[in-house]
């Protein structure tokens, strides 16, 4: 089943399942030095093109436990922002996002996102996470996945992500998993787990995150209008 998620007048679209044509772009993203900094158990070897292709294919077939999406820029916004910016031009493919390790019995899952480093701090992550959380927390009879609980796991040292989860999502830190991850160099590091519940999402977090997304879209549009 194909799924396409987008925000009203938004800048991105989420596509499930991710198309095979972007396996190479995914491999290049997953082996970017900035990404490997915060996922130190990943290496260029275990995130090879062959590995990325095999994982995408397997997770597409196992939609009961995985729901993976590719993140794409919408062309109209791409053209406006290129005109407004003298910095690096962002590609159409911005990254991946998805629910992993879905537990239907408990109506819960983990959410993971990997975004092009040049797209950080511009509101793209907020827009993508908003879209996926809303899909996840929407009841199944209304077309969503019907989750009650979504968790995020990140390295304890990943302060940018932890700060965003605490500020933008008001997520609750549930635990510190001591020395849970083994890096490519053999070092053990801590991971932290955050969670958000459906009642928190519908009770105020959804609206606050939508406001954050709206501000990012408006800022992008103002930048484009200033060049006209």
Would you mind describing this structure in some detail?
Helix 4 (75-84) crosses helix 7. The longest helix is centred in the C-terminal third of the chain and has 28 residues, at 198-225. Helices cover 39% and strands 28% of the residues. It has seven helices and eight strands. A hairpin with a 5-residue loop joins strand 1 and strand 2 (12-16). It has 228 residues and is α+β, with helices and mostly antiparallel strands. The protein has helices at residues 23-30, 33-38, 49-61, 75-84, 124-137, 159-168, 198-225; strands at 3-6, 12-16, 66-73, 93-103, 108-115, 149-155, 172-182, 188-197. Mean pLDDT is 91; it is low at 77-87. It is globular. An eight-stranded mixed sheet has the order 1-2-3-4-5-6-8-7, with helices on both faces.
How are the SSEs placed, and which strands pair?
Elements: E1 3-6, E2 12-16, H1 23-30, H2 33-38, H3 49-61, E3 66-73, H4 75-84, E4 93-103, E5 108-115, H5 124-137, E6 149-155, H6 159-168, E7 172-182, E8 188-197, H7 198-225
Parallel strand pairs: 5-6
Antiparallel strand pairs: 1-2, 2-3, 3-4, 4-5, 6-8, 7-8
Helix pairs in contact: 1-3, 4-7, 5-7
Task: Please give a quick description of this structure.
With 228 residues, this protein is α+β, with helices and mostly antiparallel strands.
């Amino acid at each position: 089943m194909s799924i396409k998620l987008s925000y009203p007048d938004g800048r991105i679209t989420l596509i499930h399942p991710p198309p095979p044509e972007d396996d190479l772009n995914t491999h290049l993203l997953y082996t970017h030095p900035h990404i490997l900094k915060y996922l130190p158990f990943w290496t260029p070897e275990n995130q090879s093109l062959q590995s990325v292709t095999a994982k995408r294919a397997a997770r597409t077939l196992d939609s009961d436990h995985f729901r993976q999406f590719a993140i794409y820029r919408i062309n109209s916004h791409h053209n406006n922002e290129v005109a407004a910016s003298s910095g690096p031009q962002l590609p159409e493919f911005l990254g991946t996002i998805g629910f992993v390790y879905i537990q239907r019995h408990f109506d819960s899952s983990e959410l993971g996102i990997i975004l092009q480093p040049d797209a950080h701090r511009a509101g793209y992550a907020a827009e993508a996470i908003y879209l996926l959380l809303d899909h996840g927390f929407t009841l199944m009879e209304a077309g969503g996945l019907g989750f009650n609980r979504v968790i995020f796991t990140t390295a304890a040292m990943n302060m940018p992500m932890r700060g965003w989860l605490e500020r933008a999502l008001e997520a609750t830190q549930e635990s510190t998993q001591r020395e849970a991850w083994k890096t490519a160099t053999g070092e053990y590091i801590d991971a932290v787990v955050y969670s958000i519940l459906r009642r928190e999402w519908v009770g105020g977090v959804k609206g606050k995150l939508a406001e954050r997304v709206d501000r990012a879209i408006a800022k992008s549009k103002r930048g484009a209008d200033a060049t006209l």
